[in-house]
Amino acid sequence: MIAVRDRVQAEGFDAWSIKSGQPHVQPPIEIIARMVTLRIHVDAVDELNAPLQVLAGSHALGLLPDDAIERLSKRAEVVVCLADAGDAWAYSTPIVHASAEQRRPGRRWVLQVDYSADELPGGLEWQLLI
Question: 7 and 125 in contact (C-beta within 8 Å)?
Fold first, then answer.
């Protein structure tokens, strides 16, 4: 999902939602596949603090329906991403990811920035979220 300034119908963009009052839309996989995500950890993340889990290699598989993700999760390597405060990661945006349940109270703040060099079609505009 990407944040856009306004809801504008454009071919290949669907699954509209509102998150924190901001329109979000699922763009075509071709756009997401060219994106890079930068994640900077404000807080440390250990095994008890809901670490990010990714399916290794899933970024190269294109758009996956839920049932394919379920099958993949049973056979792909799951990488648990622990971090110290101040750690920064860069990864391919379409990687399949989830977070475990937080098993102890505490913060897990991150600054996440999604980069794209693409301009959006049909009057859609990227929305910067701060």
Answer: no
Taking a C-beta distance cutoff of 8 angstroms, is the pair 4, 126 a contact? yes
For 56-107, the pLDDT digits (tens) are 888 888 888 888 888 888 888 899 999 999 999 999 998 888 887 888 888 8
Residues 82 and 47 sit within 8 Å (Cβ to Cβ): yes
Tally of residues, the chain = 130
66: enclosing H helix or E strand: helix 66-75
HSE, side-chain direction, 13 A CA sphere, residue 124: 23
For residues 63 and 73, give the distance between their C-alpha atoms in angstroms, rounded to a whole number: 15
Extended strands (E) in the chain: 2-3, 14-19, 22-26, 36-41, 52-55, 78-81, 88-92, 97-99, 110-115
Distance CA 74, CA 80 (A): 15
Compute CA distances 87 → 8, 41, 76, 80, 127, whole Å. Answer: 37, 5, 25, 15, 26
